[in-house]
Each structure stands twice: as structure tokens, then as C-alpha cells.
Specification:
By secondary structure, the protein is of the alpha/beta class. Helices cover about 40% and strands about 20% of the residues. It contains 11 helices and 15 strands. Helix 5 links the parallel strand 9 and strand 10. The structure holds phosphoenolpyruvate and manganese (II) ion (MN).
Length: about 350
């Protein structure tokens, strides 16, 4: 850690920092510049850095405390330089591979899900998505069919061969979802549900970890570290838009954040242009932009009849529009030298 003193810090302030470090048994190194003094703390264990930093910030004259080592270890590029390839069934994400996950927002009926599954398979998708436990802003909205939906998804996998991705909204769902699905999705609203993160880590099956609506990249990576710390490094991060002042789109797709996150972590990162934009007309352009920017895959909502969908109807693609999207994705992947699937 480096403690940066402000330009008006006195010798007594500097001494107070040194004493605080001494008290905890840490060494120090002082460099006095023309403008300001920097104090390097030596030997602070990673687990204590945050608490120590908070404490140092209360000392007058301390402007900032900077941790040198990343607060997320296992998922960081310091730990592993090469981008990981994570598999959901046979679909590969990362390390030069990108896969497309497609399907309805939610499983409504067997007929609707099978129709969607057949359509996305025919168009070249690599995984099927569909919500069984829906995180809804209103308690009166459709909450998902639960285990019945999981059975429908498993039937769709049996017929199409597509591996299945679905959300576990609660610790109580993890075991059940793991029994039916090929990957567990952790939704944006649950990114900092630490018990859920730990139990998906323990479950050992691939995890898609969505970025929280108002989470920083660092918080997102720390959330991934919770899963990794349980011994499960089969994690795919998903940028799904963050909340900003802008209302013309449902959220703001943070592509720069996605790229910045990729510089920090070896985990693959996909994007969800459906939830990020909230409008079907924006899904294709953002898919292409995201893959061009280095995304390792895309998750797209596709419904056989978006006008009749129980949720997120405006953002879901028709099968025909998904087919068009896949054609463009194929052209882009060829130009980028990106292997699909
Ligand atoms: C979803 O993908 O079904 C979903 C609810 O997304 P998010 O958690 O990103 O809102
Ligand atoms: Mn949705």
C-alpha cells in the first residue's frame, strides 16, 4: 500500500501515519517529494489492506491510500496472464472463442420454449437461455415457473443438444438449478449476494456472473473472487448495462468498462445487449460492437412471438431477426479471426 499525503500535510501528520503502521507491525518507507510525501507500507497482509486503508484515511493529511496488489487475486491477470477458456457444455468462451447464448427471457410454456430453442439452434446459437426463477422488480409480476421451467429447459436441451443456462435467484435454488442446467446465471441484482456467490462456487458448475446495475468493475471482480475462492474458476462475466442518467436506453452498455475489466481479469467476459439496451433494434449493433471490442460471447433474448412475451417483450428478438444477427456475427467473427462456439 502507498499512502499519499496531501500537499499541506505536516511532519506530525506523517509521523501519525508511521505510528499507525508501527502499531500493526508493518514497516514503512518515506519518500519526500517537492510537492508531497509518499509513505510505502511494507508487509500489510492482503486481508487487512482494506481495514488498514480505512483507518489511515482518518488521519489528517492523508489524501489517498493505494493498494498495490489487486484486491481480487485468483481472477486477476497478475495471477494468470492468459485469458481462460470456460466451457458451458461444448460452447467455449474466451481464449479466441466466442459463443452465443440465446433464448427467451423466461420459460412460459413448453411450446414457447421449444419453439425458441429450435429457432436459435437453427440460426447457429451455442447455448439456450431461459429464466425459471425471475428476478422481478415488482412482486406482482410473473416470477417464473420454477422447477417446471427447469424440466422444460432440460427437454429443450435433449431435443436440440444446446447446453442450458438459467438463473439461480437464491441459495435455495442452487442445487436444483445445478441438477438441470449446464451453467448457473447470477443476476445483476444478486451480484453482491455473497452467500449465493459462495454456494455457486461450491456447486462447481460454470457460472455466468452478471455485473450489478450500479457495481464498479472492481466490485464485479471481487464478486467473481468469491466464486473463485470456493475453488470454482469456471466463471464467465457478463456486462449487462449499468444505471446512468440516460433513459433512452434501459441501461447503459459499458463497453469501455468491459474492456477495462478484461485488462484486469483472465476470465472471459460476454455482453448482454438485450437487457443493456432494452430495445430489439439496438441488440444487433451492440452485439457487433461488443464482439469487435473483444467480448468473448453474447447473451441475447429471443422469443418466438415477442409481442406475446410475459416479460421484456420490447427487447426480445424475433427468430428472423436473430437469424440476421447470427449472419452478421459470422461475418464479423471471420474478419476478427474469432472462433465461434
Ligand atoms: C436475465 O438475464 O434474465 C436477467 C434478469 O438479467 P439481469 O440480471 O442482467 O437483469
Ligand atoms: Mn429479460
Amino acid at each position: 500500500m502507498i499512502i499519499i499525503m496531501d500537499s499541506k500535510a505536516t511532519d506530525a501528520d506523517i509521523q501519525a501515519v508511521i505510528s499507525a503502521l508501527d502499531e500493526r507491525g508493518y514497516g514503512h518507507h518515506v519518500s519526500r517529494g517537492v510537492e508531497r510525501t509518499l509513505i510505502g507500507a511494507i508487509g500489510t497482509p492482503d486481508g487487512e489492506k482494506q481495514a488498514m486503508s480505512d483507518r489511515l484515511m482518518t488521519i489528517p493529511g492523508v489524501e489517498r491510500v493505494v493498494a498495490i496488489l489487486r484486491p481480487y487475486k485468483l481472477v486477476s491477470r497478475e495471477h494468470q496472464e492468459e485469458t481462460s477458456t470456460v466451457y458451458i457444455g461444448t460452447a467455449a468462451f474466451g481464449g479466441g472463442h466466442a459463443s452465443i447464448i440465446a433464448g427467451p427471457c423466461t420459460v412460459e410454456t413448453e411450446k414457447q420454449t421449444l419453439e425458441a430453442a429450435r429457432a436459435v439452434k437453427a440460426a447457429g446459437a451455442h447455448c439456450l437461455r431461459g429464466g425459471a426463477f425471475k428476478p422481478r422488480t415488482s412482486p406482482y409480476d410473473f416470477q417464473g415457473l420454477g422447477e417446471d421451467a427447469l424440466k422444460i429447459l432440460a427437454a429443450a436441451r435433449d431435443e436440440t443438444g444446446l447446453p442450458v443456462v438459467t438463473e439461480a435467484r437464491d441459495v435455495r435454488h442452487v442445487e436444483l438449478v445445478a441438477r438441470y442446467a449446464d451453467a448457473i446465471q447470477l443476476g445483476a441484482r444478486n451480484m453482491q449476494n455473497y452467500d449465493l456467490l459462495k454456494s455457486t462456487g461450491e456447486a462447481g458448475i460454470p457460472v455466468i456472473l452478471k455485473r450489478g446495475l450500479s457495481a464498479t468493475v472492481e466490485e464485479w471482480l471481487k464478486a467473481a473472487e468469491y466464486v473463485a475462492a470456493e475453488g470454482n474458476l469456471n466463471i464467465i462475466l457478463c456486462e449487462r448495462g449499468i444505471r446512468t442518467f440516460e433513459t433512452i436506453t434501459r441501461f447503459t452498455l459499458d463497453l469501455a468498462g468491459m474492456v477495462a475489466a478484461k485488462q484486469e481479469t483472465h476470465l472471459p467476459i460476454i455482453l448482454d445487449p438485450s437487457h443493456a439496451t432494452g430495445h430489439h433494434s439496438l441488440v444487433q449493433p451492440m452485439t457487433l460492437a461488443g464482439l469487435a471490442a473483444g467480448g468473448d460471447g453474447v447473451m441475447v433474448e429471443v422469443h418466438p412471438h415477442p409481442d406475446r412475451a410475459l416479460c421484456d417483450s420490447i427487447q426480445q428478438l424475433t427468430p428472423r431477426n436473430f437469424e440476421k444477427l447470427m449472419e452478421r456475427v459470422g461475418q464479423l467473427a471471420a474478419a476478427l479471426g474469432l472462433q465461434l462456439g
